[in-house]
């Protein structure tokens, strides 16, 4: 919600909160779906069935445009490439097949200096929006874009995510995600709010428990959204509790499009049983530099006209299909804050087999190898794997890790800059209380977090005894990514 509304939102009655969300929805819808939005949708639809050679030519042309733009107008790339001896002429000859000639962009560089990635022309001529997220990675990131860039990214999702699932973002929909639509962790029902403008019911991801599941089902049946979106694990957690209590929806949605965590076969089965619709996987990033979506055949296709995905070895060179490697992304839609060969923090594997859907120009990801994160079991049986919002907009926090020691005690490890102090600690405690209610929060400053051989760390760890964990939800695979448009 807009900043002015946020100050009063926690103190307003539910009807006023719904009104505030709906008023903000007017502005948000105008930002996403006005201007050239329909033209961008038409473009993605036209390219949906292009022959492979035509898509290659298109992607290379768009890549050339973004590379030269970055060299001419983006301080980070102008400085870095010139230091590496890369000229404008070199960039004009690069295509997607030889991107490995350019250096990799570490996530740390974007984390520490997001403004250096902003094109000077855009800063001077466009109204820009900042989006803060730490996803489930514990590493805060600032993404900067314009309304027109936002329209392009939503258009891509409309065609490839929602369109392939047989539905539309324009239909009545739900969102089960990380926004604090219920202001306190100990607040009572309802655990959903309604945006009349967009016919969107928004559910809290922080209040799902065996005692509250009835209210979530009530919200779905009351507003009957045709498209269900949001966190994959939150939908699975809700579905599992619904199965245990023999609760189902009294209507049939069109489809469920889920992101933020890997959607396993077990999760799909439980969700389909309770929500009476097929769940489709969506793999994207808050940085909006790539998109991969599930087709009707159940395969995850990379939309190269949204962003180029590379899977590379430790030297930055491409790996063949069937071999695991690091994921690098080059976004083609965001001229405001372009990201080129950006290390998103995941590993993946290309498939070597063509998909029966016929989209040979959109390559198939065989597997996304995410981080193995534990589920935190909060008061009253709440289950969470994502802690979006805990570390965002804290400039002195480089990385954070959540460790559950007891049902009512969390230990938070923070890799921080020298300016980190009691005010930041108080804000972290407040954010946990808003999401999970009263807990004992121990904050520990550490020089670094323990990492795997690939340099990754687990953002969420549970040290609870097995008897305290819910069967089947001990671990979930988290790519660490969240889409910005919810």
- Poorly predicted runs: 471-485
User: If strands are numbered along the chain, what order do they take across the biggest sheet?
Assistant: 4-5-3-6-7-8-9-10-14-13-12-11
The overall pLDDT average reads 87
DSSP, total strands = 22
Determine the N-to-C terminus distance. 11 Å
State the helicity in percent bands. 25-40%
**Largest sheet, strands/sense/barrel:** 12 strands, mixed
Strand residue content: 15-25%
Shape verdict: globular
Q: Work out the helix count.
A: 13
Q: Which structural class is indicated by helix and strand composition?
A: alpha/beta
Taking all Cα atoms into account, the compactness measure Rg is 22 Å
SSE blueprint:
Layout: H1 3-8, H2 14-33, H3 37-47, H4 52-73, H5 75-83, H6 88-92, H7 107-112, H8 120-125, E1 128-133, E2 141-146, H9 147-163, E3 173-177, E4 192-195, E5 200-204, H10 213-223, E6 227-231, H11 232-244, E7 255-259, H12 265-275, E8 279-284, E9 291-294, E10 300-302, E11 307-312, E12 325-331, E13 342-350, E14 364-369, E15 371-374, E16 376-377, E17 383-384, E18 397-406, E19 409-416, H13 422-436, E20 440-445, E21 460-462, E22 475-478
Parallel strand pairs: 3-5, 3-6, 6-7, 7-8, 18-21, 19-20
Antiparallel strand pairs: 1-2, 4-5, 8-9, 9-10, 10-14, 11-12, 12-13, 13-14, 15-22, 16-17, 18-19
Helix pairs in contact: 3-9, 4-5, 11-12
Characterization of this structure:
By secondary structure, this protein is an alpha/beta fold. It has 13 helices and 22 strands. The protein has helices at residues 3-8, 14-33, 37-47, 52-73, 75-83, 88-92, 107-112, 120-125, 147-163, 213-223, 232-244, 265-275, 422-436, and strands spanning 128-133, 141-146, 173-177, 192-195, 200-204, 227-231, 255-259, 279-284, 291-294, 300-302, 307-312, 325-331, 342-350, 364-369, 371-374, 376-377, 383-384, 397-406, 409-416, 440-445, 460-462, 475-478. The chain has a 12-stranded mixed sheet with strand order 4-5-3-6-7-8-9-10-14-13-12-11, with helices on both faces. The protein has a 4-stranded mixed sheet with strand order 20-19-18-21. Strands 1-2 form a two-stranded antiparallel sheet. A hairpin with a 7-residue loop joins β1 (128-133) and β2. α4 crosses α5 (75-83) and α11 crosses α12. It is globular, with a radius of gyration of 22 Å.
């Amino acid at each position: 919600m807009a900043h002015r509304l946020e100050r009063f939102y926690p103190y307003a009655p539910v009807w006023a909160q719904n009104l505030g969300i709906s008023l903000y929805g007017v502005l948000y819808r105008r930002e996403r779906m006005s201007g050239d939005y329909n033209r961008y949708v038409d473009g993605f639809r036209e390219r949906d069935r292009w022959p492979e050679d035509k898509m290659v030519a298109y992607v290379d042309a768009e890549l050339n445009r973004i590379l030269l733009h970055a060299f001419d107008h983006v301080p980070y790339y102008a400085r870095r490439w010139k230091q590496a001896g890369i000229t404008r002429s070199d960039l004009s000859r690069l295509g997607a097949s030889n991107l490995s000639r350019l250096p990799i962009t570490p996530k740390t560089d974007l984390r520490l200096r997001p403004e250096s990635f902003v094109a000077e022309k855009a800063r001077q001529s466009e109204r820009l929006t900042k989006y803060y997220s730490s996803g489930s990675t514990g590493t805060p990131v600032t993404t900067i874009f314009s309304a027109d860039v936002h329209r392009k990214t939503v258009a891509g999702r409309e065609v490839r995510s929602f369109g392939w699932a047989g539905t539309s973002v324009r239909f009545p929909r739900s969102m089960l995600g990380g926004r604090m639509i219920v202001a306190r962790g100990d607040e009572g029902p309802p655990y959903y709010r309604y945006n009349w403008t967009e016919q969107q019911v928004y559910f809290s991801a922080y209040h799902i428990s065996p005692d509250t599941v009835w209210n979530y089902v009530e919200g779905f049946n009351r507003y009957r959204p045709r498209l269900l979106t949001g966190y994959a694990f939150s939908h699975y957690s809700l579905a599992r509790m619904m199965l245990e209590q023999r609760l189902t929806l009294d209507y049939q949605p069109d489809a469920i499009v889920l992101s933020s965590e890997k959607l396993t076969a077990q999760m799909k089965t439980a969700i389909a049983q309770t929500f009476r619709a097929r769940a489709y996987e969506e793999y994207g990033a808050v940085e909006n530099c790539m998109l991969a979506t599930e087709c009707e055949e159940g395969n995850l296709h990379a939309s190269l006209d949204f962003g180029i995905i590379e899977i590379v070895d430790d030297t930055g060179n491409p790996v063949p299909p069937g071999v695991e490697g690091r994921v690098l992304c080059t976004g083609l839609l965001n001229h405001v804050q372009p990201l080129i060969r950006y290390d998103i923090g995941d590993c993946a594997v290309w498939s070597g087999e063509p998909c029966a859907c016929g989209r040979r120009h959109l390559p198939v990801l065989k597997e996304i190898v995410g981080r193995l994160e534990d589920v935190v079991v909060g008061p009253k049986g709440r289950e969470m794997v994502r802690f979006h919002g805990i570390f965002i907009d804290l400039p002195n926090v480089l990385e954070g890790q959540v460790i559950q020691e007891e049902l009512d005690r969390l230990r938070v490890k923070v890799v921080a800059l020298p300016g980190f102090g009691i005010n930041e600690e108080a804000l972290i405690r407040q954010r946990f209380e808003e999401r999970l209610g009263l807990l004992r929060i121990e904050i520990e400053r550490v020089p670094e977090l323990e990492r795997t051989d690939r340099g990754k760390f687990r953002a969420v760890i549970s040290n609870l005894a097995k008897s305290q964990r819910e069967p089947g939800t001990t671990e979930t695979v988290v790519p660490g990514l969240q889409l910005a448009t919810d």
